[in-house]
Design goal:
CATH topology of the largest domain: Immunoglobulin-like
Pfam family, one: DUF1254
Strand order of the largest sheet: 1-2-8-4-5
Helix content: 25-40%
Largest sheet: 5 strands, antiparallel
InterPro entries: DUF1254, UCP010244_IM
CATH architecture of the largest domain: Sandwich
Number of strands: 9
Shape: globular
Protein name: DUF1254 domain-containing protein
Length: about 180
């Protein structure tokens, strides 16, 4: 009897290890992640308005139909990017993702405290190469360091009512992610 319990325990432990390894490696092995899905329909370093998601089709999995969304595929190999996103009337958020879909920074309109969300996106190496400006404070210039040179920036605006979708679409469409001169 004890022998069967040991075999059962060993099988459960082995099954748990296989399950854990599968769950942890599957996102890295997936070939149709959000970046790959958007690669053919979005230009680099420019925002593209995503269509309203329906149960049958969505540009990216798990999109919320209560939000209008615009996405920018960024590439920092050519230099830092300046992001400018106007704030909508209801709620606006900007989220930064790595190439593999890991969110590493987010800001919303309430945290920005302005009519537009403005920041500079760059790698750590590009940040270190910036000249030291003593008269510029963190409140004057928000700099976000990207852990990877490519990724996604998603701007979302809340659609408070169905009739306000056009206004929310216009707000997220006006966002810009342009290389800095």
């Amino acid at each position: 009897m004890i022998r069967w319990l040991l075999w059962l325990l060993a099988g459960l432990i082995l099954g748990g290890i296989v399950h854990l390894v599968t769950v942890l490696t599957l996102p890295k092995a997936a070939t149709r992640d959000a970046y790959a899905r958007l690669e053919s329909t979005t230009p680099v370093n420019a925002f593209t308005l995503l269509p309203e998601p329906t149960p049958e089709r969505a540009a990216v999995p798990f999109m919320d139909p209560a939000f209008a969304a615009s996405v920018c595929r960024y590439d920092l190999d050519g230099g830092p990017i300046k992001l400018t996103a106007p704030v909508s009337q209801a709620y606006t958020s900007v989220t930064f993702y790595t190439r593999t879909g890991v969110a590493y920074y987010a800001i919303n309109d309430r945290a920005a405290g302005r009519r537009t969300i403005e920041l500079d996106l760059m790698t750590t190496k590009q940040r270190d190469a910036l000249p030291a400006e003593e008269d510029v404070t963190a409140a004057d210039r928000l700099i976000v360091e990207s852990p990877t040179s490519t990724g996604l920036i998603v701007v979302r605006a809340l659609v408070a009512e169905a009739g306000l979708r056009a206004m929310a679409d216009a707000a997220v469409s006006a966002a810009k992610c342009q290389p800095q001169p």
